[in-house]
Q: What sequence folds into this?
């Protein structure tokens, strides 16, 4: 089964979500490289940030 094409509104929302995720991951990395958070905290935040863009019904979402 293939997915139906996205509407312009859905495409815009997806782009915005992806941009937010990229910025959050970037800031998470900066905090880690500056020593403001531990590697464990960085990895926890990375997981949380990545889960924001997954649909609620995604079985991989914890």
A:
């Amino acid at each position: 089964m293939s997915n139906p094409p996205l509407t312009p509104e859905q495409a815009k929302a997806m782009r915005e979500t992806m941009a937010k995720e990229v910025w959050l991951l970037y800031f998470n990395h900066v905090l880690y490289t500056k020593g403001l958070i531990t590697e464990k905290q960085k990895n926890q935040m990375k997981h949380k940030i990545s889960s924001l863009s997954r649909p609620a019904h995604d079985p991989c979402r914890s």
